[in-house]
Design goal:
The chain is mostly helical. It has three helices and no strands.
Length: 110
């Protein structure tokens, strides 16, 4: 094939000419693509953080709803039931006991 190009002098390979605007355009497009990729990654990280915050808040809401239900039961209960409830809470939360009562604590941690 080389011999055919030598025989015909009109066939000449042209070198591609890059003008400055096309190079600048390619660089600008590349920079834009890198920027978009960075923003997308940053948004994904932020989304994961917000999802975790949402889970935490939903957990807190569930706990508060349970406490509210317990308080509603307390308000609707009879005096005898309220007394039992108060004794239970005093023992569990405040570590109270009656004067003549012996309290045993398991050393196994359970």
């Amino acid at each position: 094939m080389k011999s055919s190009t030598k025989a015909n002098p009109k066939i000449v390979k042209r070198k591609k000419k890059y003008n400055k605007s096309s190079i600048l355009l390619k660089v600008a497009v590349f920079v834009f693509i890198v920027y978009i990729a960075f923003v997308l990654v940053e948004q994904q990280v932020m989304l994961k953080q917000k999802e975790q915050q949402l889970k935490d808040i939903q957990h807190k809401i569930t706990l508060q709803q349970l406490k509210n239900e317990e308080m509603i039961k307390f308000l609707q209960a009879t005096d005898e039931e309220n007394e039992k409830y108060m004794i239970k809470k005093a023992r569990e939360s405040l570590d109270y006991a009656f004067q003549d009562e012996q309290v045993f604590v398991g050393i196994s941690g359970n």
